[in-house]
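[SOLVED] Predicted holo structure with zinc ion

Edit: marking solved, answer below. Original request kept for reference. I posted the sequence and ligand SMILES and asked for the 3D complex as structure tokens.
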Amino acid sequence: MRVESDDPYFPDGMPQPALDPVSLPFWEACRDHRLLVQYCSKCGTHRSPPKPMCGHCGCFECGWSEASGRGRVFTYTIVHHSPHPASQECLPYNIAVIELEDYDRVLLTSNVVNCPDDVLYVDLPVELVWEDRRDGQSLYRFQPSTGDRRPT
Ligand SMILES: [Zn+2]
């Protein structure tokens, strides 16, 4: 289940995604609340973040598949000293690496929202939520799963 997130995780002054020809399809899909994962047209290997070439076979042709948005926390950290002035006001915050359940080891760096940092743990089941920015870009975040699955 996808849930809309109302509050931005970071204030407006935070750097926003840099759109380039390789990542543009990914970020455009985010605006439509679709989380895409790039795959190699030759060998089918999925990869994240978007890259111009397959690291497995060297092919430059790619396609995109839509992720369910379900996954688990692969690893995370709690940031107490921010490298960017804009995020000083929201310390501490988490940075989490999410392993998407639809793929074989596709990892996505994001944040877990709607979850106190002290209850985050590795393997926590999570689901996608969208943060709609005022500039029109939507950013992917994750929250603890509200589904009927239980942590293993
Ligand atoms: Zn390949």
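OP edit: Residues 40, 42-43, 45, 54, 56-57, 59 surround zinc ion (CB under 6 Å). Thanks to everyone who chimed in.
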